[in-house]
Amino acid sequence: MTKSSKESASVISAKVDDSRQKIILSSASFLSFHRTLIIVGGVLSAILSLICLPSVVGHGRLLHEGFSSLRLLTMFLAGCVFCFVGLSVPFYVGQKHVLKKSLTDKDLVFLGSLIAIASLLTYTMSWLQVHLTNVPDILRLQQDLRIFVLILPVAAAAMIVVTFFDVNTALLFSIILCTFLTVILESNLWIFLYFLLSSFLGIHWLYPYHDRFKPIRAGIFVGLFQGFLVGLFLVLRQPSMGWELYPLYTLAAIMGGILSGVLASGLIPLVEYLFDYTTDTRLMELATMDHPLLRELMLQAPGTYHHSIIVGNMVEIAAKSIGANALLAKVAAYYHDIGKIKKPLYFIENQFDCENRHAKLAPSMSSLILISHVKDGVELARKYKLGQPIVDIIQQHHGTSLIAYFYQKALECRERVRQSKKGTELPPVNEEDFRYPGPKPQTKEAGLVMLADMAEAACRSIPNPTPARIQGMVNRVINQAFADGQLDECELTLKDLHKIAKHFNQILSTIHHKRIEYPSTATAKFESHPKCKETGNGRDTDQKSAAQSGKSEANKANSGTDLKRLGLQ
Ligand SMILES: [Fe+2]
Ligand SMILES: [Fe+2]
User: Which percentage of the chain shows pLDDT scores above 90?
Assistant: First the structure.
């Protein structure tokens, strides 16, 4: 076999291995998701079958016709299968074509539990409606419009779902839930529409959730809409009903909406705690800068703290322009480098005038220390319960990028040793040892934090930053990340990258802008002024910046002259 044919054979076998690996991984995730869907769906179907069976078959028939236990078991199993199909088909199709984000096992358990609780609550209300003997006739007026049904806080479930998921998931969930509740109540299309429209508007008025009073406000609006809907319904369906009953039914519908808001408001923090979900209100709490982790970062690693604030501002503005979650991106940027708290002096932004700690270390050791800040950050984020979205972004903010400086240093060291010990065979420098472990950014927000982090750090190294140089550097950083494949797994498009670069340039140019040089004579006059001497040094921050920003020789000479005049040199 020739050399080229051997190479092509090895390439083909590598491709086969790769595709086999992909098939195994995708089938593993397929099985995991479907296993959970089957378990959750199975349990839920059993509950729903028990609840729905009397409604489907008829209470009277079940009680009086005396079905055999085998017949009852068959009916129960048929009910289970029916409910399972009713649940799984919409979720499966939705997962494939409608939902923006794949549902995890935890999500399925949460949504299943919510359907089960809502169904049990509805069944209890329905049972009370049928079996309470001392209920006044006025409250059990018609078969298709019962006052107990109007008070049911069905919209609360949709409002809770939209808080933790996207709008598509909440709409799909509402359709499934409202269908089952209508079957349980033995109601008709009017009641289905009453539940469904209230749920849809609850979603509309609550999303996005970043104010803890919003569920109450949404509940009041839903209540008013329900009152209006019931009024229309009564006019159309109960023309013979006395006008005196209208306020009672309308009030019941309004109460149902308000109850939905109150229930959603109370249950959202509980769900957030039990299922470890992150809401916008939680993100706003984390963004207040009063969090112990950020205070610790400010004390232990002030350079990193300052860098994180700038990255936060950069991603917030860029996220708004590309339709990403600006709040999540900003908060994640604040916390992305918290792992540096453990060894702050090994990172250049915290070294100031200290000696470089890496000078005495082997490049591989330096690289290990740098890589460890990601793992340490993830551990701290988990310890302080920052939430999974923040943990993910901390883990992904360097992707699998190369620590080029220490990799080059390692190559140079190896070359030096090889030349000094001629003939000695040295192991090659493994590039993978100088790469972050990843994973690569999986979301727009994670991709944004990665790009802003790289761009901000790179612009600090520009000796005399002008807008043109900053623009060149930002474009180079983004191109490098793109060419290195770091953005392959997030949803950032080329159009997004263009917008991101534009906003990064604006912010970084504003931060690194040059100030107009103060005339040296004016400075000298100002500093020799008696009032200035009275207040001590007398230099404000602007003058400091002006003195520090000019790195040209002329500036150095001028400042040197100034210092001499002041007797400080
Ligand atoms: Fe980092
Ligand atoms: Fe960073």
Answer: 42
Give 98 Cα–ligand 1 centroid separation in angstroms: 35
**CA distance linking residue 53 with residue 184, whole number of Å:** 8
Return the ligand number nearest the Cα of 395.
1
Nearest to 195 by CA among 154, 231, 225: 154
Give residues with Cβ within 8 angstroms of 105, minimum separation 6.
32, 33, 36
Residue with more model confidence, 415 or 144: 415
Query: Ligand 1 center to residue 511 CA distance, Å?
Result: 20
- pLDDT tens for each residue of 281-302: 889 999 988 899 999 999 999 9
Could you give the C-alpha distances from 541 to 141, 537, 544, 546, 548, in angstroms and in order?
77, 12, 5, 9, 10
Q: From ligand 1's centre to the CA of 273, what distance in Å?
A: 28
Cα(547) to centroid of ligand 2, in Å? 28
Rounded Cα gap, residues 190 and 230, in angstroms:
10
Q: How far is the CA of 412 from the centre of ligand 2 (A)?
A: 26
Look up the pTM and report it.
0.72
Pick the range with the lowest mean pLDDT from 83-92, 136-145, 254-263, 325-334: 136-145
pLDDT at position 563: 37
Tokens representing 81 are 């299968």
pLDDT at 55: 67
Give the distance (Å) from ligand 2 centre to CA of residue 367. Answer: 15
CATH number of 282-401+436-511: 1.10.3210
Q: How far away, in angstroms, is 161 Cα from ligand 2 center?
A: 33
Q: Residue 312 C-alpha to ligand 2 middle, in angstroms?
A: 10
- Name the residue with higher pLDDT: 564 or 113: 113
CA of residue 507 to ligand 2 center, whole Å = 16
Angle at CA 342, nearest 5°, toward 340 and 347?
Answer: 40
Which ligand places an atom closest to the C-alpha of 449? 2
**Domain map (residue ranges) of the chain:** 87-277, 282-401+436-511, 520-566
Compute, in angstroms, the gap from residue 373 CA to the centroid of ligand 1: 7
- Residue 394 CA, ligand 1 centroid: distance in Å: 8
Q: Are 335 and 377 in contact (CB under 8 A)?
A: yes
Nearest to 323 by CA among 489, 499, 172, 161: 499
| Interval between CA 508 and ligand 2 midpoint (Å) | 15
C-alpha of residue 449 to centroid of ligand 2, in Å: 8
pLDDT of residue 159: 96
Which is nearest to 451 in space by CA: 481, 430, 485, 488? 481
Q: How far is the CA of 330 from the centre of ligand 2 (A)?
A: 13
List Cβ neighbours of 79 (8 Å cut-off, separation of 6 or more): 45, 48, 49, 50, 52, 53, 56
> Is the domain covering 87-277 a CATH 1.10.3470.10 domain?
no
What pLDDT score was predicted for residue 564?
41
Ligand nearest to the CA of 452: 2
**Cα 58 to ligand 1 centroid, rounded to whole Å:** 63
pLDDT tens, residue by residue, 356-405: 788 788 888 999 999 999 999 999 999 999 999 999 999 999 999 999 88
- Structural tokens at position 497: 């990258």
